[in-house]
Recover the amino acids of this structure.
């Protein structure tokens, strides 16, 4: 399927689950809801199917994919080793927004690892994803269901806006509960290492398994990555977007053109003809609505989007600030 030739159908899992499974079994793509963001899925064991993910997204081939499984036994079939730490983490956090990097089984397409001998595996916690995985009865490779580098989708409408004609079917599961991509932890490293922060926080991981390192990577698109979500520029709207601190506010007021401000502080706002989008002040609420806010701001056709930087970088805020840093340019860099 190529863009523009065939329209994409959106349907509930209850009505289209068998159709989705049939598509996957024939090597086609299916977009589906998870608790984090919507995924663009293909049979993780077939090179030709996995290659379609990269083509539909325009994704660099050095960016690995996450393989979704129905349960821990399914994960073990995707890896050549299952360390004790994997067992502990699976019992504590699966199903849920935690991805573990493990040695890849030869039963999987090497394309899921982007040339590396590893695979990123997770067991999602969402009724649509769970039903799809259980009925398909196999591993599904699925990055976010959007064009590479753009804002991740948290509704079926977001997927349709970008991938109409590039995927036959979208399984609509409503708005994603978490709203940010999963935490990725590398269990092949000497010390377990977080490669991408998410809703399963570093603090939660350390409480569960002890010492955990954190690796901060800002890579160019030409590089081969350890994990998804490590490009310097990622999760970004088309409109120029800037991250600012409260002390930058006078510069924003003086900036030319129409502006959209995304803020969690009600006292920070702009009068018409500018726009202000107010997000929740708590980390979970902010994370859940952040991508939708970036998309809404992008659709307004303003000269610039200005995002007030959260004051905290602890817990879930670490994942929020990671995404914002990659989606925007710091105002101080201008």
């Amino acid at each position: 399927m190529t863009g523009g030739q065939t329209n994409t159908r959106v349907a509930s899992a209850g009505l289209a689950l068998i159709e989705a499974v049939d598509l996957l079994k024939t090597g086609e793509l299916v977009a589906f809801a998870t608790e984090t963001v919507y995924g663009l899925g293909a049979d993780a064991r077939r090179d030709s199917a996995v290659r379609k993910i990269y083509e539909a997204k325009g994704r660099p081939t050095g960016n690995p994919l996450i393989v979704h499984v129905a349960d821990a036994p399914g994960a073990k079939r995707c890896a050549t080793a299952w360390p004790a730490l994997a067992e502990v983490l699976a019992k504590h956090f699966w199903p849920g927004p935690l991805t573990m990097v493990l040695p890849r089984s030869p039963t999987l397409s090497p394309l899921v690892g982007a040339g590396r001998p590893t695979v990123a595996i997770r067991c999602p916690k969402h009724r649509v994803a769970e039903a799809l995985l259980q009925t398909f009865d196999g591993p599904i490779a699925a990055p976010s269901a959007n064009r590479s580098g753009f804002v991740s989708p948290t509704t079926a409408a977001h997927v349709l806006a970008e991938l109409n004609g590039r995927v036959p079917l979208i399984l609509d599961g409503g708005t994603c509960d978490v709203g940010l991509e999963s935490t990725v932890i590398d269990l092949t490293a000497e010390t377990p290492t977080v490669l991408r922060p998410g809703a399963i926080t570093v603090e939660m991981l350390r409480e569960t398994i002890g010492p955990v390192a954190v690796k901060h990577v800002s890579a160019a698109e030409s590089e081969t990555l350890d994990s998804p979500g490590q490009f310097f520029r990622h999760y970004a709207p088309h409109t120029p977007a800037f991250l600012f601190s409260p002390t930058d506010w006078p510069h924003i007021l003086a900036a030319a053109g129409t502006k959209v401000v995304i803020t969690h502080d009600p006292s920070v706002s702009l009068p018409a003809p500018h726009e202000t989008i107010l997000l929740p002040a708590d980390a979970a609420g902010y994370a859940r609505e952040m991508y939708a806010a970036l998309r809404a701001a992008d659709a307004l056709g303003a000269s610039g989007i200005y995002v007030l930087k959260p004051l905290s970088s602890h817990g879930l805020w670490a994942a929020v600030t990671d995404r914002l840093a990659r989606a925007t340019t710091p105002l101080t860099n201008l």
Notes: The chain has two domains: 9-214, 241-333. The CA atoms of residues 184 and 303 lie 35 Å apart.
